[in-house]
Backbone:
């Protein structure tokens, strides 16, 4: 059985000195770690190093830079530089004191300007465009330039004095690209035309179905979805009136 050391023995003095040194070191570490546990920080660092060694970065949130080619140098440096500038300008656009409307206007034009200078918007800094050019032997760049010149010619040949109500002739084929459903306009004003389509079945539901499409992309979104939904049972016997904006489904 061990005997207890007397208070004045050398062993007790060494033990007290070691305890004082340990408390001093622990106090310095606590001050450096802002009161956090050094053991917890060491375990967190070890877990981070083990995960980082696997080489699995977080998925890219920006859809413009999700392709694997953006992870290669020098495109990864260009991407990260743009993302840092993008975050700085978006934060700088938030100014205290602006009205809600003016803040939305500033945010809109800031986004437009940033999107215009994005590396994904230029062929020489777009990693995917460069890869596609190598795969096609430069044909993709040539086709893009041809599309650009065609759009430029159309823009230059367009008359600024032309009536905006007069549209260019369409090359759609009736019954194939454009639906032809019998019906009539039952109400019309300066904003809308209400079209009532003729039932395609002998029986219909007593309640009419009114569809008011969005002003934006109303034709490509609403019309195909409506046709597919209406053709499914039990809605195939419903010939209900639908509403359409002027120059929307009424054309």
Residues:
């Amino acid at each position: 059985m061990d005997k207890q050391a007397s208070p004045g023995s050398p062993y007790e003095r060494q033990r007290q000195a070691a305890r004082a040194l340990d408390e001093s070191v622990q106090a310095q570490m606590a001050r450096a770690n802002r009161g956090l546990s050094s053991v917890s920080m060491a375990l967190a660092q070890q877990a981070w190093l083990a995960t980082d060694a696997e080489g699995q970065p977080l998925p890219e949130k920006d859809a413009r830079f999700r392709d694997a080619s953006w992870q290669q140098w020098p495109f990864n440096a260009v991407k990260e530089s743009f993302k840092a500038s993008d975050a700085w300008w978006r934060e700088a656009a938030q100014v205290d004191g602006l009205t809600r409307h003016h803040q939305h206007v500033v945010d809109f034009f800031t986004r437009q300007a940033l999107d215009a200078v994005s590396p994904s918007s230029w062929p020489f800094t777009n990693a995917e465009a460069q890869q596609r050019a190598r795969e096609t032997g430069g044909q993709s760049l040539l086709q893009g330039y041809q599309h650009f010149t065609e759009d430029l010619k159309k823009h230059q040949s367009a008359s600024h004095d032309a009536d905006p109500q007069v549209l260019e002739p369409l090359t759609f084929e009736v019954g194939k690209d454009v639906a032809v459903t019998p019906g009539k306009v039952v109400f019309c004003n300066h904003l809308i035309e209400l079209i009532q389509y003729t039932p395609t079945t002998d029986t219909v539901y007593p309640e009419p179905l009114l569809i008011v499409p969005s002003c934006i992309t109303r034709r490509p979104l609403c019309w195909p979805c409506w046709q597919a939904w209406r053709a499914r049972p039990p809605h195939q016997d419903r010939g209900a009136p639908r509403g359409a904006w002027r120059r929307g489904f009424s054309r």
User: Anything to note?
Assistant: The longest strand covers residues 183-188.
